[in-house]
Amino acid sequence: MQEYDIIVLGTGLKECVLSGLMSLSGKKVLHIDKNPYYGGESASISPLEELYKKFKVAGPPKSMGRGKEWNVDLVPKFFLATSELVKILVHTEVTRYLDFKVVEGSYVYKAGKVHKVPATEEDAQSSDLMGMFDKRRFKKLLHFALNFDERNPRTHQDMDPHKTTTREMFSRFDLGQDVMEFTGHAIALHCSESYLDHPCVETINRIRLYSESLSRHNSSPYLYPLYGLGELPQGFARLSAEYGGTFLFKRAVDEIVIDNGKVKAVKSDGKVFHCKQLICDPSYVPNRVRKVGRVIRVICLLNHPVKNTHEASSCQIIIPQTQLSRKSDIYISVLSYSHSVASDGKYIATVSTDVETNNPETEVQPGLEILEPILQKFVYVNNVLVPNEDGRKSQIFVSRSYDATNHFGSECEDIKDMYRRITGAELCFGRSRHQSSNSDL
Predict the structure, then answer these.
(1) Do residues 203 and 190 touch, judged by C-beta distance below 8 A?
(2) Which of 15, 266, 379, 386 is packed most tightly, with the most Cβ within 10 A?
(3) What are φ and ψ of residue 262, in 5° steps?
(4) Residues 397, 417: contact at Cβ < 8 Å?
(5) What is the tens place of the pLDDT at every residue in 254-310?
(6) Is 194 buried (19+), middle (13-18) or exposed (0-12) by CB count in 10 A?
(7) How many angstroms separate the Cα of 433 from the Cα of each of 21, 98, 145, 399, 429?
(8) Cis bond leading into 47, ω under 30°?
(9) What is the pLDDT of residues 21-53, one digit of tens each?
(10) How far apart are CA 307 and CA 284, in angstroms?
């Protein structure tokens, strides 16, 4: 009889991060995936022929270059340079297996045009998003956020950050609607307007995170791995294997065995693997998840940089919902040969948003217009699934589907939340296990 502490089903990013962390803490881990490749819903597709095949599109034409030069992420997301996910990478030393490169620019859409996101005082001075007085007010807000210390009331400027709403804070700095919009959506990276009526402490911390990430690399606060996100699950899988984790690919999961309401084993290809806990993505337990929305993503292949992005070979563009009278923002990520994910001179731009109507493709039209001309589009709509229960009773812990954002904020929250429920402890990390610095990121 084969016994494990934890069985992990699926090799999506979240499952692999948790598998690596569990192996690192001495747990005996078995990883099973029904697919022959890493990444699950967030896989990187290579060569390019596979992407055309996946979407049942004829091609690719010769002009696209060599297929194996392409690594196309189904769910592209950027890392903020000082974010918690980067801290996890450094702590676990998965950075040994990956090379990161800075994303060249961060942009926001206003009145039909793409503008650079100002996140430093110098940027604010030259920004065409604000008038002279707004620039001064924005600089004061930035200064306040960067000097803010939750534990030191003297830095709070007579506000209680846990009681004062973000709306009240913006009003205190006398910010105009335009400044509020790009600060809330393109710097603090909030997905809806509800943040305005929540305590301002979270928004202040988000502005700080963005600014600190930006100060790391100057051109933008974002990082992305060379060869695409598919490298990440593989890095964590190597970590897990290094600490005794076992991997089985192309294995159907026939049954999850429950005893007295609690997980007992997994049956796969006629074998029974016993476990105390189970981690998986929603596709393995359709009866334990519910649909809370849908996300549309359109992968666009281009042969030119995006207009008004200073010829950037990689960038993020956010279209705040208020620009389009929507409830949710539209996100565009642009990557290219500079991150080794496309042939020389080619670009991959992915447009994503929460679906709000019965015609999702019309909803992303403003994003697609920014990218014209487009050589090839691949459109797909995914359900957003969340677990029905927290897993403490059944010891089955299910990750949430990937949201429409193109940064890892919510995914990192999900990893931390699952870790807390699985172990009963907070996910804490200082520097790497060997106390090396994280200057490589």
Answers:
(1) yes
(2) 15
(3) -125, 145
(4) no
(5) 999 999 999 999 999 999 999 999 999 999 999 999 999 999 999 999 999 999 999
(6) exposed
(7) 12, 17, 31, 26, 9
(8) yes
(9) 999 899 999 999 998 888 888 899 999 999 999
(10) 42
